[in-house]
Design brief:
The complex is a heterodimer of chains A (298) and B (354). Chain A has 298 residues and is an all-alpha fold. Chain A contains 13 helices and 2 strands, in the order ααααααββααααααα. In chain A, strand 1 and strand 2 form a beta hairpin. The longest helix of chain A has 26 residues, at 22-47. In chain B, helix 1 (4-18) packs antiparallel against helix 5 (164-178), helix 3 (102-114) packs parallel to helix 4 and helix 5 packs across helix 6. Classes of the chains: A mainly alpha (298), B alpha/beta (354).
Chain lengths: 298, 354
């Protein structure tokens, strides 16, 4: 997969030299940061043997709540409210999955629909404008030459990697995804750790939602359509197994890079957005096929 | 169905078009902050913008529009590309895939900035939502021309659009006349957060309240402005309010769906429906008498003026801050005598899909 990314970058760079410009690299990484954060949460969900279909809609719900609270109470309060809202939605997902034993696909499908509805209800369907200008810095600002959303996503990757590799929670995520029954039998409190998985996913969606709200400097109830599917694609393209237990932050990073570079590169070399969709579809299936073929050969 | 009322309404329409720009500021304030409408310069909007001399340089212009699913934007795309050809410019046309894909439009504008185009033309998916993207372009030294749907950012060279206020009033006048001053209407406003849905809808309401106080607005709905939305919302409206006698559409993309609902309910002839724009289905439904009238914008002209404004600015020639393209009303009576060169792309023309 790293070879594919290098190849893509070389091809795009040779067709349009602007691809390698500092402006564009900053640009691609900023655009990728939202998907990257969603994919991080999705990694936890998929690794644990579940899935989180609600992350796209949560972007919209977080955006509306963040914007409303920001207008009512201020910058910091809005940002906090947005992230907390994401975490709470994750908690609800977790409760339904772990306590009520509703399959993750169904529980988060319900949240996908309900969160969109909540975003539309709270906002009356209208965008929430008039946010403070300083808020724009979060989505559009830089630390040195690096866009702030890129920095946040990078920190989140390191953090998530640490959690998965160095904490008990991380080991149990793999254990649940590899064999849930075995995890239960070995005394892991599966229900609690499942809740933690969906809270984590919700929190990452919350952070992504706040950044996206800053990028569009308004609360938008229609944000994030089909983003949940791209986040799943990012996880599996890199080599994460859809049924859980296999993968990690490294493979997800690969998936995010492939999707991000493809989207931006195809735009820069002027490939039609319709054809782009076909290419991305083929790559999702192709990447997983190659992975499986390699596994079978072993 | 009193046919003679048509001519009166059409005359009113033509008069308002001729005098567009007059006193259109006062009725344009809204809760969501109507994009572009608060401009003090609206009153000085120009209504003609001739083609500048062909520049010696081949400029690269990036265009970002909401989508290409409505012939309105296909006409606009034709305007951009055909005019660019005449002026030796190269157009990169990007579409966001619908009013719900604000994040995509923001990314597209960023990609245009990164590929260092000479100018960017934007029809904004959302007024407030595009502020950051437009200001990023301005900060990178790339002039932004705003066409058709307004951004809330004031960092634009010029705003080129229909006088949406007049479109709302034309529909209200037609509705009021046809209903003989009394009736119950519902409104399909269009995409939330867009200048056209806000300004037209507000003007429609205001004009009804002022001139036809007995025409009541029973309800209004926003949507992503697709035929499917129009069909679904209108079916529900017909269930909720059996007494509906009029339907307003901010754009014909909902009207062609709503028309199906009216036909399905067997209410053709008892409901007056007005719309904006002129896709082929709109023409068909006007001919069938399901849609009573539609206000035709000039998307091709919008596209042409957008490219002219970009090149004029790059060539350091003056560009007026606000420009209004023309309007006319289509009804069953004048369907076959309309000059559509500024309204539609040529029949077999297809946009280079991006």
């Amino acid at each position: 997969m790293p070879a594919v990314i290098v190849a893509l970058a070389i091809v795009f760079g040779s067709i349009n030299p602007n691809f390698w410009s500092a402006t564009n690299l900053a640009n691609v990484s900023r655009q990728m940061s939202i998907l990257a954060l969603l994919a991080l949460g999705q990694t936890f969900a998929i690794l644990s043997g579940g899935i989180d279909l609600s992350v796209g809609s949560l972007l919209a719900l977080v955006s509306v709540i963040c914007a409303q609270q920001m207008k009512n109470f201020g910058l910091f309060e809005g940002i906090t409210a947005g992230i907390v809202a994401g975490g709470l939605a994750g908690l609800v997902n977790g409760l339904i999955i772990a306590r009520a034993r509703v399959p993750p696909f169904i529980a988060t499908l319900g949240m996908l629909v309900a969160a969109r509805g909540a975003a539309l209800t709270l906002s009356g369907g209208l965008p929430i404008a008039g946010l403070p200008r300083e808020f724009l810095v979060l989505g559009a600002g830089y630390i040195g030459p690096v866009p702030i959303p890129t920095v946040i996503a990078a920190v989140a990757f390191v953090l998530a990697h640490g959690i998965l590799r160095r904490t008990r929670f991380g080991r149990y995520v793999y254990a649940m995804g590899s064999n849930e029954e075995a995890a239960v039998l070995s005394g892991i409190n599966v229900a609690n750790y499942k809740m933690l998985v969906y809270i984590t996913s919700g929190l990452f969606a919350g952070i992504a939602g706040v950044i996206l709200t800053s990028r569009v400097i308004s609360g938008q109830p229609t944000l994030g359509e089909v983003q949940e599917l791209y986040s799943i694609a990012a996880v599996v393209i890199g080599g994460g197994r859809i049924s859980g237990g296999v993968g990690g932050i490294g493979t997800t990073l690969m998936g995010v890079l492939v999707l991000g570079i493809l989207g931006n590169g195809l735009n820069l070399v002027q490939v039609s957005s319709y054809i782009q969709n076909i290419v991305i579809g083929v790559i999702i299936v192709g990447a997983v096929y190659v992975d499986l073929a390699r596994e079978r050969r072993r | 169905m009193k046919m003679k009322r048509f001519s009166a309404a059409v005359t009113v329409a033509m008069l308002t078009v001729a005098g567009c720009g007059r006193g259109t500021q006062t009725s344009q304030e809204t809760a969501a902050g109507t994009p572009g409408a608060a401009d003090a310069t609206v009153a000085q909007a120009v209504t003609d913008f001739p083609r500048p001399a062909k520049p010696s340089k081949a400029y690269r212009i990036g265009v970002s529009i909401p989508h290409l699913a409505n012939p309105h934007y296909v006409g606009q795309a034709y305007g951009y590309i055909d005019e660019a050809q005449s002026l030796g410019a190269q157009v990169t046309l990007l579409e966001a895939g619908g009013y719900e894909h604000l994040d995509k439009q923001v990314s597209q504008v960023e990609d245009l900035i990164a590929s260092k185009v000479d100018a960017i033309i934007i029809a904004a998916v959302s007024g407030p939502g595009t502020i950051g993207a437009v200001e990023a372009a301005a900060a990178a030294g790339i002039p932004v021309i705003n066409v058709n749907v307004m951004t809330d950012s004031d960092k634009v060279v010029t705003r080129i659009r229909s006088d949406d206020d007049v479109i709302g009033r034309m529909q209200a006048d037609f509705m009021g006349e046809r209903l003989k001053g009394a009736g119950n209407v519902v409104m399909l406003r269009g995409a939330p957060g867009t200048s056209w849905a806000e300004i037209r809808g507000n003007a429609f309401r205001k004009q009804l309240a002022a001139k036809y106080p007995n025409v009541k607005v029973l309800g209004e709905q926003y949507s992503q402005s697709t035929p499917a939305d129009g069909l679904r919302l209108m079916e529900d409206f017909l269930q909720t309010f059996p007494q509906i006698s009029g339907v307003y559409n901010g754009a014909d993309s909902t009207a062609v769906g709503a028309a199906q609902a009216v036909k399905g309910a067997g209410k053709v002839g008892s409901i007056v429906m007005t719309a904006t724009d002129f896709q082929l289905d709109t023409e068909k439904f006007i001919r069938e008498g399901v849609i009573s009238a539609s206000v035709l914008q000039q998307p091709v002209t919008m596209g042409r003026w957008g490219v002219r404004a970009a090149i004029s600015y790059l060539e350091k020639k003056p560009v007026p801050p606000v420009m209004f393209t023309g309007l006319m009303t289509a009804t069953k009576e004048n369907l076959d005598s309309l000059d559509l060169t500024a309204v539609r792309a040529p029949a077999r023309w297809t946009p280079p899909t991006r």
